[in-house]
């Protein structure tokens, strides 16, 4: 029985969604096509009707995971428009988010794996990083600062992002729950201190 184009596209999106979670849980090389497709309720034989290769799926699943993560950042920020960065810090550097594997941050879960992948996969992560940086830059009031294109403002957003990602990575890597919590709290304090100490943006010209 032939599958309609609409159903075929729905199946394809299902595989991408499932893969975005399973890759975060197991790593790109920690799960094979058979188990990926089984997780989506399909057979391995259907894979090559939908994707050119596993790398093709990896790239698309990475983009999907990053889009979902950015959506969660935006939702957290929208819940506290008076201080969106603090809202995102509270969410991202929480013990609950740290415990999330399949649904958590793809940068933490797959960043080291992405470095060993091909250019399409790295491009997916690069695009996601740029969107993260744009959000953080806006929240710390430097999005329109002079020299923000690769300058000091962008460097501060990079430092915030690196601190947050690194803290969750370290917090997940240890058995000691108290040490894990301290990594998250120290990073949260560091981010808020960095941004609170930031000089004000340029004043309007008279």
TrEMBL record:
InterPro entries: Homeodomain-like_sf, HTH_TetR, Tet_transcr_reg_TetR-rel_C_sf, TetR_C. It comes from the Bacteria. Residues 32-51 bind DNA. SUPFAM superfamilies: Homeodomain-like, Tetracyclin repressor-like, C-terminal domain. Residues 9-69 form the HTH tetR-type domain. Keywords: DNA-binding, Transcription, Transcription regulation. It holds the Pfam family TetR_N. This is TetR/AcrR family transcriptional regulator. It comes from Ancylobacter radicis. The lineage of its organism: Bacteria, Pseudomonadati, Pseudomonadota, Alphaproteobacteria, Hyphomicrobiales.
């Amino acid at each position: 029985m032939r599958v309609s184009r609409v159903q075929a596209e729905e199946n394809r999106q299902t595989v991408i969604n499932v893969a975005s979670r399973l890759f975060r849980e197991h790593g790109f090389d920690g799960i094979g096509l058979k188990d990926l497709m089984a997780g989506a309720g399909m057979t391995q034989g259907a894979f090559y009707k939908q994707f050119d290769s596993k790398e093709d799926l990896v790239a698309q699943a990475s983009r999907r995971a990053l889009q979902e993560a950015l959506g969660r950042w935006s939702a957290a920020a929208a819940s506290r428009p008076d201080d969106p960065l603090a809202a995102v810090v509270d969410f991202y550097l929480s013990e609950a988010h740290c415990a999330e594997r399949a649904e958590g941050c793809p940068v933490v879960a797959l960043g080291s794996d992405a470095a060993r992948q091909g250019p399409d996969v790295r491009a997916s992560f690069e695009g996601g990083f740029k969107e993260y940086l744009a959000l953080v830059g806006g929240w710390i009031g430097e999005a329109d600062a002079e020299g923000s294109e690769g300058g000091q403002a962008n460097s501060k957003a990079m430092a915030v992002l690196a601190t947050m990602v690194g803290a969750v990575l370290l917090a997940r890597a240890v058995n000691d729950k108290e040490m894990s919590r301290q990594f998250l709290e120290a990073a949260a304090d560091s981010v808020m201190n960095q941004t609170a100490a930031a000089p004000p943006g340029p004043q309007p010209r008279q």
